[in-house]
Write a structure and sequence with these properties.
Length: about 270
């Protein structure tokens, strides 16, 4: 069944655990996430970003996810990842998404709060949860890197969550989208301070490549949702390459192998939620 993320994130925060959100953009990615969740017997968050609109429309993804979630025994959240355009938020919610992220990190704080509050007001009446973000990260496609980071400021987080009414907050504490150039180093003291100020479950983007022990520590302190994409996408590509080298030449076989590979990687992350 499709649900919003409010109760799930509160529950995971209470337990000091985090629920993974996997980026999905076609049937195979959705099926991989649901198979992994079924095997691990955990809820799961399917995250589709604006950047994937060239792969599928909000409506197509919502129809696929709703149909597959109906046959699924555990809660599934259909989340809009990193959305900068409020019209896309409206479109996704109307299509059936149950959770949205408004990314106003490019705006001055006051304007970010104003826009986020408008999204919250729109979403609340439709039983949809809202994730906000404060601080700066490199783009979701993994371009750029550590030089783009602007760590989240706890005092701004207090103002932002109180005035916008978001259900959860994505933070920048050393996490990077894509491949880490060196050892990932999370600022856990800052993470704890931001959580204390924000008083909502925190979200850690860019979790590919972060040692699972560090993710567990972040969840014990503050983080109830982790975002994972690169490890899955690169794992699938690596598997396709190996299959091609082994002489497989048919696309349906490559797609099935990629789905199996993604299911395994997603399962490893879902075990962090237990
Ligand atoms: P990675 O691609 O680094 O795993 O990050 C995914 C993400 O944060 C999507 O919002």
């Amino acid at each position: 069944m499709l649900v919003n993320s409010r109760e799930l994130l509160r529950e995971y925060r209470r337990r000091g655990r985090c629920l993974p959100a996997f980026n999905i953009y076609n049937l195979e990615t959705i099926r991989a996430a649901l198979t992994a969740a079924r095997q691990e017997e955990t809820p799961v968050i399917l995250a589709f970003g604006e950047g994937y609109l060239s792969h599928a429309s909000f409506k197509t993804i919502a129809v696929l996810a709703a149909q597959l979630a109906e046959e699924h025994p555990l809660p599934v959240v259909l989340h809009l990842d990193h959305c900068r355009d409020p019209r896309h938020i409206q479109e996704a919610v109307e299509a059936g998404f149950t959770s949205v992220m408004y990314d106003g990190t490019g705006l001055p704080l006051e304007e970010n709060i104003r826009q986020t509050r408008a999204v919250v007001e729109f979403a609340r009446g439709r039983d949809v949860t809202v994730e906000g973000e404060l601080g700066g990260m490199n783009p979701e496609d993994g371009t750029g890197g550590e030089e783009d980071l602007l760590f989240t400021d706890p005092s701004q987080a207090r103002i932002y969550t109180a005035e916008s009414g978001v259900d959860s907050l994505a933070v920048s504490v050393g996490n990077v989208h894509g491949v880490y150039r060196g050892e990932p180093r999370l600022d856990l003291d800052r993470l704890a301070a931001v959580y204390q100020a924000a008083e909502v479950p925190l979200v850690l983007h860019g979790c590919s490549g972060i040692p699972h022990g560090d993710i567990r520590r972040a969840a014990e302190l503050a983080v109830a949702k982790i975002n994972v994409n690169t490890e899955i996408a690169m794992g699938a590509a690596g598997r396709v390459s190996r299959e091609l080298n082994a002489g497989i030449k048919r696309y349906e076989k490559l797609a099935a192998a990629a789905e199996k590979e993604m299911t395994g990687i997603m399962g490893d992350f879902l075990r962090l939620s237990k």
